[in-house]
Amino acid sequence: MNTLRGWRTSIPLQSSFAALGLATLTTVWTLVNALRVEPIPDPPPTAIASLESLRRAPRTASADVQATVDYNVFSIDRVAPAAPYRLPGEPDPDAKPAVQPDKPIVLGTAVATDGKHFATMQMKDGTPKLVRVGDKIGEWIVRGIERGKVVLVSTGGVRAELAVTRPGF
Q: What is the CA radius of gyration of the chain?
């Protein structure tokens, strides 16, 4: 009996019994959740085709055989079209190239931590101008200013990235 009393007052033995109890509870909880089955939701109603709807199916247009024979692709009289076929989005080879406006010269950029960036730019044969994002210089609108680089978009939608011409001056 003396040894039983010693086991009951032993801290390591009490800790191991507590851990065993916790492990048993965790195992029972896991088994209950693993064996629980969620109800299966009802499937959406299905529409079954009837014989009447199959009999009254929409008729497809009959092929115009005579038009196909008249437009014989292997005919001797057939000639090439005036313009070659182009895929959608393919540029027209006969179209005149878009004329780009003169690009300004970037003299320098200043990048601030508060987002108030600016650049010094100059049009050819013009005076230097201080510009910020959204300003217009010539036919160009400033869209972005970074260290040593300015992003411009023309009124025609052409995008250009210009770098400082002579950095360090």
A: 41
pTM of the model: 0.43
147: nearest Cα among 127, 131, 167, 121: 167
User: Under 8 Å CB-to-CB from 165, ≥6 apart: which residues?
Assistant: 105, 106, 107
Average pLDDT of the segment spanning 69-81? 78
Per domain, the residue ranges of the chain are 2-35, 105-163
- Quick: pLDDT tens for 3-53: 666 666 788 888 888 999 999 999 999 999 888 888 888 887 776 666 666
- For residue 78, pLDDT over 50 is answered with yes
